[in-house]
Amino acid sequence: MRAILLGPPGAGKGTQAETIVKEFSIPHISTGDIFRKNIKEGTPLGKKAMEYMDQGKLVPDDLTVELVKDRLLKDDCKNGFLLDGFPRTIYQADALEDFLKEIGQSLDYVINISVRKELLIERAVGRRLCKNCGQAYHMSFNKPLKEGVCDKCGGELIQRKDDTKETVENRINVYREQTEPLIDYYTKKGIIVNIDGEKPIAQVSQDIIAALRK
Ligand code: ADP
Ligand code: AMP
Predict the structure, then answer these.
(1) Residue 116 falls in the annotated catalytic set
(2) Is residue 214's pLDDT more than 90?
(3) Which of 87, 105, 175, 210 has CB 3.0 to 4.6 Å from 8, enough for a Cys bridge?
(4) Average pLDDT for residues 132-146, to the nearest whole number?
């Protein structure tokens, strides 16, 4: 299965990706995670991406598209993939379509997760990530067993630098202006699956799996 997770920051894309990739045995490709890994490792790409991410702006299209193309050529993507947080602009969506065509592939589904703005801010500001393994938690909605400690690996839980209220508001505005038009774009292609992301995590997972299995 070749699919995309679309939705504003804090909608639950990363959280749902975990379940979907297990269910369909495909790799989870999050451009945000790739950028954060590069920032942590201090690579030139990380340095460049950080200038934009810290302000809640999008990393330039050309840089992001090249990164995704390279990733999609890896062996583990042969039988499918789940893109999370890409594409985020019409330019990126067109580039993805051209690239997939070139390699004889096409998209099966675009999973569009909707959540109201007030809830998005609460979710993103309360999000915590494991410093070691990247596992996501929420201080109220998805707590770790022991405060500040990752259930999976015992790592320290930290807050993303761009998860402050002000930056989240910027990111939501950027989403509305540059990414939301993709809902129409993929609806016209007939591959969109609309999901109510305000339900509890397990219910949202069930709804997504049921829609993809249809
Ligand atoms: P995204 O990848 O879309 O930015 P995440 O999956 O990281 O969003 O989720 C943002 C925060 O909201 C996380 O802290 C996560 O634990 C929490 N969360 C995700 N889905 C739900 C849900 N359905 N209900 C409540 N909290 C959720
Ligand atoms: P995310 O982890 O999806 O919330 O993304 C975090 C940040 O990474 C975004 O606010 C952008 O700055 C950057 N980013 C992630 N994916 C993209 C993309 N497809 N295009 C441009 N910037 C991106």
Answers:
(1) no
(2) no
(3) 175
(4) 94
Domain that holds residue 207: 2-116+171-213
Average pLDDT (78-92) is 97
Give the number of domains in the chain.
Answer: 1
Give 199's DSSP letter: S
Q: Is 86 in the pocket of ligand 2 (CB under 6 A)?
A: yes
CATH number at residue 205: 3.40.50.300
As a whole number, mean pLDDT of residues 56-73 equals: 97
Told to judge if 88 belongs to the known catalytic residues of this protein, a careful annotator would answer yes
- Band (pLDDT 50/70/90 cuts) for residue 48 is very high
Q: Is 5 in the pocket of ligand 1 (CB under 6 A)?
A: no
Question: 125 CB less than 6 Å from ligand 1?
Answer: no
Residue 71 covered by a domain:
yes
Q: How many other C-beta atoms are found inside a 10 Å radius of the C-beta of residue 141?
A: 15
The pair phi, psi for residue 103, each rounded to 5°, is: -100, 15
Which atom of ligand 1 is the closest one to the Cα of 199? 23
Say yes or no: CB of residue 36 within 6 Å of ligand 1: no
Section 38-57 average pLDDT: 96
Percent of the chain at pLDDT > 70 equals: 100
Nearest ligand to the C-alpha atom of residue 39:
2
The pTM for the full model equals 0.97
- Pick the atom of ligand 1 nearest to 15's CA: 6
- Does the active-site annotation cover 213? no
> b/e map of 41-63 (b: 16 or more CB within 10 Å)?
eeeebbebbbebbeebebbebee
